[in-house]
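Fill in residues.
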């Protein structure tokens, strides 16, 4: 569903992430759990790698491509909060901002609906491949004329 349970803020560290992962694994005993993550340092830490190795293949991490925030549901959620709350408001303190975010989440969850993807997996992967190819071509460019030709 579109319900938001929690997200990790930049101030949270690996122990919080691993506590969440332990809850997820406990909720699905004996089942293989696939987790889609971005490339945040908390997801790639040594402690996380050690924990993952101890799961003996029961937990599999899949990482979204770097620079593909539009594929990451948490990034999409952060964008919704930014557009609908943060950019529209003035907050006198961090506590006031936190209260407003909590109220926004409570309201959002009171009438939550699933996020609907408008593209198929094949279309998304096609776009990622096209963007990657274009970026590689631009990185190989040696003259401004090369860049201008590719932009045309």
């Amino acid at each position: 569903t579109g319900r938001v349970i929690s997200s990790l803020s930049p101030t949270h560290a690996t122990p919080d992430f691993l506590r969440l992962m332990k809850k997820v694994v406990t909720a699905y005993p004996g089942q293989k759990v696939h987790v889609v993550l971005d490339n945040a340092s908390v997801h790639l830490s040594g402690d996380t790698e050690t924990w993952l190795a101890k799961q003996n293949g029961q937990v599999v991490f899949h990482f979204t491509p770097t620079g593909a925030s539009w594929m990451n549901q948490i990034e999409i959620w952060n964008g919704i909060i930014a557009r609908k709350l943060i950019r529209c408001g003035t907050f006198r303190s961090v506590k006031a901002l936190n209260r407003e975010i909590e109220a926004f989440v409570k309201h959002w969850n009171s009438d939550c609906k699933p996020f609907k993807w408008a593209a198929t997996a094949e279309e998304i992967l096609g776009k990622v491949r096209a963007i990657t190819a274009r970026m590689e071509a631009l990185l190989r460019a040696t003259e401004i004329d090369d860049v201008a030709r590719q932009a045309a």
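The radius of gyration is 20 Å.
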